Amino acid sequence: MAEDKPLTVQSDRTMLLDVHSPSADECRSDIIAFSDLIKSPEHVHTYQISQLSLWNAISSGLTADEILSRLYRWSRFDIDSRIEFFITDQAERYGDFILTELDEEYLLLTVRRPVFALQLKAEQQLLSLLEPESESSFRVRRMNRGILKARMIKLGFPVDDRIPLKSGVPLEIRLRDTFQPRPYQTDAVKALLEDGSNGTGYGTIVLPCGSGKTIAGILAMSKLNTRTLILCPNVTAVHQWIRELLDKTDLTEDDIGEYSGEKKDMKNVTVCTYQIVTWRPDTDSDYPRFSLFRDGGWGFIIYDEVHMLPAPVFRITAELQAIHRLGLTATLVREDGREDEVFSLVGPKRYDTPWSQLEAQGFIARAYCHEIRLPLPEDMEIKYAIAKKREKYRIAAENPLKIQAAKEIIERHSGESILIIGQYLDQLEQFRTEFGYPIITGATPTKKRDELYTLFRTGEVKVLIVSKVANSAIDLPDASVAIQISGTFGSRQEEAQRLGRILRPKNRDSHFYTLITEYTEEEDFAQNRQKFLSEQGYSYSIEKAGTHE
1 pLDDT band (50/70/90 cuts)? Predict the structure, then answer.
């Protein structure tokens, strides 16, 4: 029997993996370290080799020879010589700029190739950061460590940071005996921390929505045993982290502080929102709460939903290069294209696994995606025709026929826990008026939000109307149906997050409905969302309103 080779490596640096091959899982484990999963439909998964994916791999200890060896092992066909050159060249480039200790005030940036040293001297945006030490080295002030790394990667010059991480104030964090992490959560933390040598202990873990990213963070905390700062996208996520920490570890309420708009408690473990730390009295002022980062004696910082990391936090993150860091996300897709800054300032991708793999293993729910298309009412056609492009989208998104379509879906899934998710507050209020279901928006007080989420979890409330505040970091394990009535244009990130609300494992399949006004701007933007979900491997059907059997 011929050796099984499930991989096709193409000249554009994409790789096609035959998931039906007996060796598919083993091959996937080999290539995910140096490539990014781009598409994962039911038969063939597509991976991409890029500069950033190779730098991720090299920074984690892989060599060009090891990467090429894995490709030779699994590729059905000969590999294009240009790909071999690209891998070798990028691997060499990662080692061209090495950052090491010099003295108490300065670090030393050593440049291996003289031509690159000359290029650095000619880069205007680097002149203020680099002080010549020799023909092939520069002094860098410690405070500029992160800024330098961020600016250099924009120029295609990744820095190999070999400066050991400092330990924060010790804090023993023990897991409860009743808590049993899943194998992939344990593997993710091992990949992050490795053996504790230089170049480890910081990075990003990519896990699907509903798979327990919070648990991975808690596992890492139990390994590092140090004071920890956790940043979250919203107050509900803050409360969720606190609940999980109290449930899964021996930490008590006296150990855990909430730093939000409502409370300002700094304790051994402090959980806060991005919004509260980026507050400032006006646009010309500094960020007074950035001191939270510097004054806590932290040995570990967790960035929950790191793909949502606000731009101002990148600045302070640049200063926090001396401590352990973890970014958690379901997708490294950033609509602002700042993935390279996540790489430089938080850390490289250390672990990734496809949604479909965890779904097949039963760790997340099997989900079916449905696009329901509705006509635009005749009395709105003229208004739509003369509107500007952005206005057209909103008119289509707020199509009143969506109310009846949602009603039919709710009846179809009677007794299940259902979320109605939308972008526009006026539209959400119309649904609340029509159905009488409770609603959560940005204006809903935190206490009220928590009450409604609790009622939804316990089943006392079966249908909940939510705005984009529920897009991420909300644990609603029993939700099995989501009805998306409007969204942020064609945002792939938002689509992944909203789908994640119904992916917690349960004893039934999940269904994600998107209501679309056909032949409008909304349909055009839906194509991007539809393509994204299909490429992730989800069953996706399109039907006209009222045709479901």
Answer: very low
